[in-house]
Amino acid sequence: MTRGLWRERVSVFVSLLGALMLWYLLDKKVEKDQTFSLAVQTVGEGDRWPAGSGLFLRIPNALAFSSVRPSQVDVHVEGTAEHLARLEGTLRGLCDIPLDFLGGEDERSRDLVVDEVFKFPARESLPGLRIESPGTITLTLSRRMEFMLSLDAGNLEFEDAKLAESVDVRFTPSSVRVSGPVRSSLLLQSKPQLFKLARIDAKSFDAALRGSCSARTRHASFIEDGGLLKNLQVENDLVEITFERRQRFREVVLEGVEVMPLIPAEARPDGLDADSPLSIDPPAVTVRLRVPESYFDAEHAESSIRRELDVYVDLGDMPFSVHADKLEPRVHGLPEGASCVVEPALIDVVWNILDVDAAGGAPESDAR
Fold first, then answer.
1. Helix, strand or coil for residue 40?
2. Which helix (H) or strand (E) holds 115?
3. How far apart are CA 110 and CA 97, in angstroms?
4. For each successive 10 residues of the chain (368 residues), what is the average pLDDT?
5. ∠214-220-221 over CA atoms, to 5°?
6. pTM (2 decimals)?
């Protein structure tokens, strides 16, 4: 290739490159238009405005979000190609909802014209940009209601219902704070089991029996088809869940159990009938027991309970100067973990005294 031909080709390349650069620079200044579809989102009163694209509504803490329709709005923007390119992913509209939005009502819906209520920071940072959106959104807010929701086994969703049949459940803390729209809060208060703190499978069940199961309320769910509960908020606390195996019990009734007297030496008055020092009425009682199933094995049966159980009255409970009283029957020899009720609950006990003078004298009416 000759030197002249090489210089000619270089000159042509430079010219083309220059033309491309000029076209690029001019194109950046060309007026264009573009439509952005922006999602409508809400933020709390104390939150910063999020980054990125969207129509953001900042709601006072005293109010609770219920719904917004539509969930996204088209915004038409006119400006240079350079400015439009810079808006990708950064076009934002910001709106602070006033505290008096409800106007004294518990819940209220209002139509908001996008052009009138949203401020677009891009208008200030990119002079000459024209942003238009004649669209309207319908915002529904409610008075915020807060309450404490007490937790029980009904707030757990068991993979296998049989897992819950033999255990008692304890939560630490025993309640969580819930807040949200009034109607939603009242519904959950009336049906607290719509709140599901955690799903318990065999693995987490075994972990809870070892005292190591926990759940975060931010992962909780609400079981409700109408969607009314979806806007409720639960404090982001860690809740410890403890399972304790529940004992099975058997009801046992023993009738005609003899009541024995326990007579401390210092409780005996003088002048007692040697053959029959004491009268007990009734002489036998009915004992109703609640006994753990674990008691009953090859060595223990209902008949062994009667052999090992004693019902007695303690005469030491009777005041020294009193010769007749009603005493509560006591029970000895209960199986471990068992409880009982004795019928009747009081026993009439009378000292049989022959020598009135030796017993401290009789009332004057009796002496006559």
1. strand
2. helix 114-117
3. 11
4. 59 52 47 90 91 94 94 91 84 95 94 94 84 92 95 92 84 94 94 93 87 88 81 89 84 94 85 87 95 80 88 89 90 91 94 66 38
5. 150
6. 0.58
